[in-house]
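Researcher: Please predict.
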Amino acid sequence: MEEALGHMGTELRKLGQARKARAEGRATKQDLETIASYEKMAMEGDEGLSFVRAARATFLFFEGNKSFPWSYASPPPGYRSGRRTGKYSSSLDFLPLEPKGADISDLDDKMLGINTSDMAVAIADEAERKEKMWQHWTAVGSTDPDVPVPTYARLP
């Protein structure tokens, strides 16, 4: 996580370890301060949290509505740049974890991902096939190698 996310990855790992310690009843004062500090920051205008709330509100507009065809794709937690592999799998309505059905109280090293190229292919495939009509879904695939590639186009 630290390699992919740098300082943010280090802080998220600390948070995960502190939450695990609290759940197991062995949290130190520092663990509790780490959790409190992160939760305070998240509630005081974290732009990521606003994005998640906006995405959830958008999905609620679609959920249960069958007056027009729709499919709602959400990227998995490990969504990152990378080269296309052409391989992915889809899941409906839940956070894809490895191993399947893993305990969600400790998400370290269990969250799956996909590279941007393969996610784009998954979305295009769904647009053509319409297999997930009226459903919320995600796709997961390889994130190896995690090689940065341009995710934008430049016009002359």
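Model: The first helix runs from residue 2 to 5.
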